[in-house]
Amino acid sequence: MTRKRVFSGTRATGGLHLGNYLGAVKGYLELSNDPGYETIYMVMDLHAITTPFDKDKLAENTRNVVLDYLACGLDPEKSIITVQSLVPEHTYLAHILSAEISVARMQHLPTFKEKVAQHPDNVTMALLNYPVLMAADILLYKASLVPVGVDQEPHLEVAREIARKMNQKYGTDFPEPKRFATKGEYVPSLTGEGKMSKTVEGSFINLTDSLEMIKKKLSGAPTDSGKGDKVPEKGGVANLLQLVELFEGSDKRKTFESEYLGAGVRYDELKSDLAEAIYNELKPIQEQREKYKNNPVLVDKIIKEGAEKASQIAKQTIKEVKEEMGFI
Ligand code: TRP
Questions:
Q1: Same domain, 98 and 178
Q2: CA distance 184 to 195
Q3: What class of enzyme is it (predicted)?
Q4: 42-84: per-residue pLDDT in tens?
Q5: Whose CA is nearest to atom 7 of ligand 1?
Q6: Same structural domain for residues 10 and 156?
Q7: Per the confidence metrics, is the pTM higher than 0.85?
């Protein structure tokens, strides 16, 4: 019996933050520990160049995400762990798949529109083609399950559409990939608006942040007078309470909620306890990270061997696709 394949990846735009960890990497881990799945996790450096990037930092950022993966407990014995650009078949397949979807479909994606608004002077072909490259990442390995945040659902829909079209037109056997949702996947932003995001300054806590840094970041999170006749459902206080629930449990949240309706919440205490709770979760990850960081030879070996394993699958898929499509 062949195992179902899982593919996921993170853009190489710096280290991982708490939102990436709880929203995606915990899902990667869960699936990698399930013997029913063959898991492939990559750092997406070709996707990183679709928005403005610093050439002096690209390699370092890529390496940092690999270190974060390993620190979080991803195990090269159980999963293929590597870097996208080391397997050139990703771009090869992306070109082929780009013939199966319209420019208009790409232009209407919410993710594309957001990036156009953020970087109006950098609306490149690579940016427009981002979802096609992502479809290629997944289809190259015939993966059927993709652990990613809910914001990636429109991209998965594109991947499914392309898979269907390829199968109908050429008789390929691409599965239609589904999203795998993790439990505590929504990690609220420290700014009080939306979720933690690498592109929103002051919104996130990095996996490598020290206790002091976490305290400092939390101290900037917006609050209110600490009491009222209704617990806020939106904004800074609501986000803080969500974080309390995630890291200290729902009982703790309930205690703060009754204080809010009664004598009042002391936010300095809430924030300091929350910082400790978050740091306790990160400490073992940071310790693991140090070990790998001090052993770059091992990390290089993991990346290289991962690329070799991925290449074997990738080459086979390209061979099949070319045959089905009538290439020479
Ligand atoms: N677009 C994804 C994100 O921003 C990153 C990504 C690129 C990805 N290719 C992928 C995720 C393939 C899953 C599968 O999170």
A1: yes
A2: 12
A3: ligase
A4: 999 999 999 999 999 999 999 999 999 999 999 999 999 999 9
A5: 134
A6: yes
A7: yes
